[in-house]
Amino acid sequence: FKGGDTCEYLLSSGRFLGEKVWQPHSCMMHKYKNSEAKNCLIDKHIVFIGDSRIRQLFYSFIKLINPQVKEEGNKHGNIPFEDKSASIKVDFLWYPEVNGSMRQRIKSWTEGSVAKPHIIVAGAATWSIKIHNGSNEALAQYKINITSIAPLLEKLAKSSDVYWVLQDPVYEDMLSESRKMITNEKIDAYNEAAVRILNSSSRNSKAKVKVFSVSKLIARETIMKSADGLHLPESSRDTNAMILMNVYCNKIMKPIDGSCCQPQPPLTLIQKLAFCFFTLSIIGYLIINLIHRNNYRKNKSCTDLESGEEKKPAISTPSASTLEMLLHSFCKLGLIMTYFYLCDRANLFMKENKFYTHSSFFIPIIYILVLGVFYTENTKETKVLNREQTDEWKGWMQLVILIYHISGASTFLPVYMHIRVLVAAYLFQTGYGHFSYFWIKGDFGVYRVCQVLFRLNFLVVVLCIVMDRPYQFYYFVPLVTVWFMIIYATLAIWPQIVQKKANGNCLWHFGLLLKLICLLTCIYFLSYSQGAFEKIFSFWPLSKCFELNGNVYEWWFRWKLDRYVVFHGMLFAFIYLALQKRQMISEGKGDPLFSNRISNVLLFISVVSFLTYSIWASSCKNKTECNELHPSVSVVQILAFILIRNIPGYVRSVYSSFFAWFGKISLELFICQYHIWLAADTKGILVLIPGYPMFNVLVSTFIFVCVAHEISQITNDLAQIVVPKDNSTLLKRLLCIAGFFSGLHFFSAMQDQSRH
Question: Which residue, 260, 587, 620, 740, is most buried by CB atoms nearer than 10 A?
Fold first, then answer.
């Protein structure tokens, strides 16, 4: 079941997802744009040599370079094409039969009298069947001719990419009278001869003629849509051309979503060091475990001969137990990271492209909603946005987002717009939760900051090291981290205004509102001043964290997309806590939040607002325009949901333990999906069990959820060790962490230098 030679799979096997999307067996196919095709083929000479079917493939191929090309010119003659901007030359040479003329042309490339093409795509047979009326003598002559050509093609394959295109089946019922002798039985006989003869003298050599047999599979599904029963419809030809482009260009361009024909990336220095660290942790944990077991056996309930009393086993020291917990956590983490690497960096497991259908998104959504309602329990407290309720909210949102990602629903704009609200709602909770904590507790200590930063960033830092990805690649964690620091800075800078101080003097409330207005002004300024934003985050060391592909544009785009929602969360928390303090809301069990009249009015407005937003989002036609409006209007549906969920007393008093369980590990689920549930950095789907899509999703999901849960526990355990409450110990740990990141930066600089 391992991936094997994905190039061979790409050229020989696959299936259709829907009607037009071709899925190669075991790997992902990238859809090349014109600019990418030009960059790959710059200064290259490509030759298509054969009959009318090869001519069709030639036109589809050059349209990937220049879509404006029209199928003009002599159909039974040579057709040149040149793109001067990229120095690309593509020629079609009309040789409808495998005969002496074709052999002579191929031989001229091997003798050096003519420059060798970089890519040669050849194939022919139907003309031989047609001209000789499908006779056996013609087939025998074809075998002789291809036997004479095969050594020349194999010789060219040592320095060029040579492809032999097998003949596609025909739709016999649609063939004209002059082509009735071209039967699928004859075509199979010619294909069998070509496959048997080609590479017969170089079976153990790496330089081989690549047999392009996948077009046969594509033709079987689409030939009935042919105009004449012989030539493929345009969509099928385009698929064949895209396969050719992937075979040649993937190893050059290395697209993330093009895993076919890509070699396994070499281990970096930092990855090797991480491997050594985890190996030593596993060895260290096993040694300590063995020592403890031996000590336990020696001291186990052995009776003292003099007193007749039992001796208690020796109690391990706190430092020893801390070291054991540390090594145990790193031991588990090392095994988990090995699984991550094998899934998404080693060519061990298969990967497939996503394919969206309405059923693949909405049926799982309905299923998990039914499950969530089934696991309904009473909450411990009935306050607005209590802990169980926020965990439930995070949980169902995360499950919907996971289904959105694996189903490829981003291509359906109404779903995309609603998912954007879910991401905004998570950031709303960030603003609400952190503001509430600082406002009520007044705890601005270093310990609290370090605990939050560690829990948010630990897994991502480890993945950046193991998976060789930049920090900004996992964009959501930098987003919540920066917003946490903004909330902290807003409330911690002088004057520090907290609830206890504000209760003594109402003027402090106005002081806090003034702070929030200043924050809103800064957000507004940065959102409309891309230059100022990029200057701030282009300074070292911030640039090392927030750059992606050499610039911070992606970070600016992500930040701008939900720029106001954290502020809305902070403002909602401030208003709610002020109302709660003045006992203007009722949060008793079963009681509506306000008086019956006000509750009914607010509930009606909330339902109308919720539905109005959904109607607007569903009617979106342009993603760019809708994204521009989203930061200002997403809060409408978020507030509507909060009021619908909390105004009725009964609804506020219950929660789904099923969703709440997932909510507690929502951050780990979001990050882990990148590599062990999805594949190719979220662009595709991980295939552990090929051929059984539903069973594969069940197995990979089970492993994925278990791993996320385990990582959550590891993070919590390590947070207690790495971030202690004692300030002097914490300072020492912070110095160690600073040293670690300095070393990481040094090795990263070494890697970059060696790559250049």
Answer: 260
